[in-house]
Amino acid sequence: MVNIIKVLLTTTIDSLGYVGEVVEVADGYARNFLIPKRYAIAPNEHNIARYAKERKAHLAEIEEREERAARLRDALADRVLVFTRKAHDNKKLYGSVRAEDIISQIEKDLGEHIESGRVQLEEAIGTLGEHAVTINLYKDINVELRIRVDEEGATKEE
Fold it and tell me: Residue 158 has what pLDDT?
């Protein structure tokens, strides 16, 4: 039978909790890993007060990241990114549109940097026309971005 104990986290551990949070873990996990690595300490009154400030700062940072991601989602939701590329007769591109191209266009238009791993693009866009790309901005905040690839030198008739 596994003994469960409470520990106070001194650092954020993704699968466990945030700094300053009191969590329940297996006794062996705390004794053999968390406490020796100084990732956790005993949750007494003094220690809880000591890490309360760090916990508050961490929660404020998380809230700010979520707000920033929500603002970016709203800014991208109704936007269509347009790229111009040379193409063959069968609408295949000579140079594809990659995640890096999408990121640099967003950075140029909105001044916001997105990590390339957040752009869900299984393979580069290789044809003319409209495409949809999902971007994971933060945790469960996603946006489906519309991409249009026009032929270089062609005039758009609409």
Answer: 45
